[in-house]
Amino acid sequence: MKAELEAVGSTNDTDLALIRSALTIALKAFEEATAWMLAHYDSNPREAAAGAVPYLKLTGIVTGGWQMARSARIARQLQASVEENAAFLRAKIFTARFYAEHVLPEVETYRDEITMGATATLALEEASF
Amino acid sequence: VTYVAPLDDMRFVLKHLAGLPEIATFAGFEDAEPELVEAILTEAARFAGEVLAPLNGTGDRQGCRWADGRVATPDGFPEAYRQFVEAGWHGMPASPDIGGQGMPALVSSAVAEMWKSANLSFSLCQMLTMGAVQALAHHASDELQQRYLPKMVAGEWTGTMNLTEPQAGSDLSAVRTRAEPDGDRYRLFGSKIFITWGEHDVAENIIHLVLARLPDAPPGTRGISLFVAPKFLVNVDGSLGSRNDLVCSSIEHKLGIHGSPTAVMSYGDKDGAIAYLVGQPNRGLEYMFTMMNHARLNVGLEGVAVSEAAYQKAVCYARERVQGKPIGSAQRASIIHHPDVRRMLMDMRACTEAMRALAYCTAACMDRAQHHPDAAERARNQGRVELLTPVVKGWCTENSIMIASTGIQVHGGMGYVEETGAAQYLRDARITTIYEGTTGIQANDLIGRKLSRDNGVNAGH
User: Fold this and answer.
1) CA B177, B269, B258 angle in degrees (round to 5)?
2) Is-contact B277 B373, C-beta < 8 A?
3) Cα separation of B64 and A83, whole Å?
4) pLDDT tens, B427-449?
5) A-chain residues within 8 Å CB-CB of B347?
6) What residue of A is the nearest CA neighbor of B394?
7) The predicted structure's pLDDT at residue B461
C-alpha cells in the first residue's frame, strides 16, 4: 500500500494529490490500530476482541481505498489514450476522490474506537444490562 | 430493465487492478484468453438481466411453499434453472478435470456477481452445489466422486451443506447428529437446520453433505466426520433408486431471500438415512475449513452484488422522480439534481466500486496462490488471501446493509413500501453478515489467526 502512495503522488494533479493525502492519513491510522492490536492481543485478549469488528471495518476501508487510489492513477494514465471510454475514466477518478474525501476519514474514528474504547465496552456488570 | 451488469467497471477491475492478463498466462488457465472472457461476461450479463432479474421481485413476493416434505420454489425458478444448466453456466466455475471450464476464480467471481445482483435467492443453489462439489473433489474416494460429481457439476443434481443444528450454530463442536456403521456405509440420525436449498423442485436429486459423529468419536471438534447422503439413492448404473430416509420437515419464514428455500432436515426418522463417509473419520471440520476461503469470498461478493443492484435501482428512481426545485435552480427537476441525493448516490457508488475492486483482487490472489509458477509468489499470495478473505466477507456484507438502506432513503416513502423493490435489497442483504460466519467471527479470525499469528507481516506491518 505504501508503494501505491509513491505511485499516486503527482505534484500538479489536484485529484490524485487529494487522494494521496487522504490515503496517507488513513494508512497511518491503520498502522496505529494494527500496532495496538498486536500489542494487546496476547496480554489483553478481551479488549482486543472488543475492537475486532471496528478493526475489520478499518481494514476494509483502507484496503478498499488503496484499490481506489490505484484505480484513479490508472484511469488518469488511460485518459491519454483515445480508444478508452472518456466518461468512464472521468467518473472513476471523481468516484475515487469522493471515496478519499468521504469514506477514508472514517478510519480515524475506528482507530480511536479500537485503541481507546474497550474499557467502556466491557465495564458493565451483567446485571446492569 | 431491472439490472444491467456493470461490465465497464468489471472489465476495468479485471484487467487493470486484478491482473487478469497475467493470470491468463498461468498453466491451467490457457482458455482464459480475452475474447473468450469477453464472450462469457457479455453472455452472463444478458442471462442475468433477461432471465434471472425478472424473477427477483416475483420470487420475493411469492416465496417458497412447503407441503408434505416437498418444496415448490417460486414460479419461473425451475424453468430458469433448466436454462441456466442448459447454457452451461452451472458447471463453469469447476476445474476442467471434473467437467468445468477452467476459468480463473477471478473470472468466475465477476460472473457470480451478476447472478447475485440479478437474483440472490436463485444464485444460492449453484453456490451451495459447487461448494459440495469442491468438498467431494478434494476429499471423497474415487468411487464417490464418480458416482456424484459429473451430475452435480452439470447441475442435474444439486448439493447442500448440513452443518448447523439448533444447539450448534457458530460453535460446531456441539454437533449431535449420529452416524452408525452399517457394513461399508452408515446410517444417519439427527436434525439439521438452516439448510439452504435443502429441498426444492428444480432438479431430480439432492446430494446432502452432512456433519455427524461416529459412535466412538472423541467429543468436540475433533470428533466430527463428513458424510454424503443423497435424497434418492443411486444405483450402480447411475440411475436413481429408492428414496432415502431423510426429509425436509419444514422451511423457515425469513426476513429476506424468500426465493431460496431454507430447510429443516430430519435424518433417520425410520431406519436411518443411508450415507457414505467422505475421507477419513473425525476430519469433517478440517475438510470444511479447506473450502472456507472460497465460500467466504462468495458471500463477500453477495455484498458487492446487492449493493450494485440497490445502487442501480436508486439511480433509476432518482432520474425519473420529479420533486421540488434543486437549490439554486428555478425549475422543478428530478431528484438526481438535489445535492443530498447526489451525496447518497456517490456514497453507494464509491463504496460498491471499492468493494468490487477488493473482492476481485482477493479472487486474483487465490488464483496466484494456486497457479503462479513461482513458489514464493504462491506463498505470498496465500498470505494475502488469508488476511483479506475475512475482510472481504465482513466489510462488503456490512456495507451492503448500509448501501441498501441508503437506496431506500433515495426513494423516500416509495422505498419503504415494497412495490418499488428497494426494500427487498435491504432484507436480502441482511443475511449476508450472518451466514458463513458472522461479522464477529470474521473479525476474530482477522485479529487472531490471521494478524497475530504472522505478527502483522501480511498486513504490511
Assistant:
1) 75
2) no
3) 48
4) 999 999 999 999 999 999 999 97
5) 98, 102-103
6) A56
7) 47
Contact B2, B45 (CB under 8 A): no
Picking from B351, B447, B450 by the largest number of A CB atoms within 10 A of its own CB, the best residue to mutate is B447
Cβ contact, residue pair B459, A34, below 8 Å: yes
The three-state secondary structure class of B41 is helix
- Please name the residue that has the C-alpha cell 477471478: B106
Residue B102: the pLDDT is: 86
Q: What would the mean pLDDT of B361-388 be, rounded to a whole number?
A: 96
Does residue B268 sit in helix, strand or coil? Answer: coil
Residue B436 is among the residues annotated as catalytic for this protein: yes
Inter-residue contact A22 to A85 (CB < 8 Å) = no
Predicted confidence at residue A84, as pLDDT, reads: 86
Where residue B240 falls (left for φ over 0; alpha for ψ -120 to 50; beta otherwise) is beta
Helix, coil or strand: residue A28: helix
A84 within 8 A of A78, measured Cβ to Cβ: yes
Whole-model pTM? 0.96
- Which whole number is the average pLDDT over B74-91? 97
Q: What is the ipTM of this complex?
A: 0.96
For chain B, the average pLDDT equals 95
Residues in chain B: 461
Cell of A68: 481506489
Distance CA A63, CA B300 (A): 14
